[in-house]
Write a structure and sequence with these properties.
192 residues; alpha+beta; Aminopeptidase; 7 helices; 8 strands; 33% helix; 33% strand
Length: 192
C-alpha cells in the first residue's frame, strides 16, 4: 500500500521560497553517494544534534542497502542530483506506539530558511494521514530553538521537556524537547 502511494505521489516538484526548484522523492539505494556527500558537507556544529554518526559512510551505506519504507521512510529534496534535504518518518509496526510516527529532518545549511524543510515535513504529514497514523512526534535538543519554532508554525505542540535527558555525539547532556502533531485535528480540518 505505501509503495503504491509513493509511486503515485513522487517524484514531486517543490518550489523553494527563492524560486529554486527541487524534486521531492523517496531515498533509493542509488542515492548512497549523494547522501554521503550531503552529510559530509554539514558543519561540525550541526553534528551534535544528530542521533547517528552520519559522517561515517558505512552508516549511510547500511541505511541505503536496508531500506524498508514501512519502518523508516526517508524523503529527500534533490537539486540537480545533489541532496539538499532529508526528512524521515519512523514507524513501529507493532506495539503501543504503532499509531505514532516520528519525524527527523536535516537541511543543508545553504538551503535553510527557503521552505524545503516545511515542504518535506508537509509531505510526511500527508503520508502519515494516508497510512492511518494518529500522531507524529519530533524530538529536539532545547538549544535547537529555530527548528522548534519552525515545527510550532507547522502545528506541532511542545508536550514535554526532559532535563538533561540526551547526550550529543560529544557526550554532553542536553534537555530533550518532545513535540507532537495530532493528525486527527488535521483530518478534521481537511474535511471542513
Amino acid at each position: 500500500m505505501l509503495e503504491d502511494m509513493l509511486e503515485e505521489n513522487f517524484p514531486k516538484p517543490a518550489k523553494l521560497e527563492d524560486g529554486t526548484r527541487a524534486i521531492l522523492r523517496p531515498l533509493i539505494p542509488q542515492d548512497e553517494q549523494a547522501l554521503v556527500d550531503f552529510f559530509k558537507s554539514m558543519p561540525e556544529e550541526d553534528m551534535i544534534y544528530l542521533r547517528d554518526e552520519v559522517k561515517d559512510p558505512q552508516v549511510v551505506k547500511h541505511w541505503c542497502q536496508t531500506l524498508d519504507y514501512e519502518v523508516t521512510l526517508p524523503l529527500i529534496a534533490d537539486l540537480e542530483g545533489k541532496i539538499i534535504g532529508d526528512a524521515t518518518l519512523h514507524q513501529e509496526k507493532r506495539g503501543w506506539k504503532s499509531h505514532i510516527g516520528s519525524i527527523r529532518v536535516v537541511i543543508h545549511p545553504q538551503f535553510r530558511g527557503r521552505g524545503i524543510g516545511r515542504a518535506l515535513v508537509g509531505e510526511l504529514i500527508q503520508l502519515a494521514l494516508d497510512i492511518g497514523l494518529v500522531k507524529l512526534d519530533a524530538e529536539f535538543m532545547a538549544e535547537q530553538t529555530r527548528q522548534i519554532a519552525i515545527f510550532e508554525k507547522m502545528g506541532f505542540v511542545q508536550m514535554a521537556t526532559l532535563p538533561q535527558h540526551v547526550q550529543d555525539l560529544k557526550g554532553e547532556s542536553h534537555d530533550l524537547v518532545i513535540m507532537v502533531y495530532d493528525l486527527r485535528a488535521t483530518e478534521h480540518y481537511a474535511a471542513d
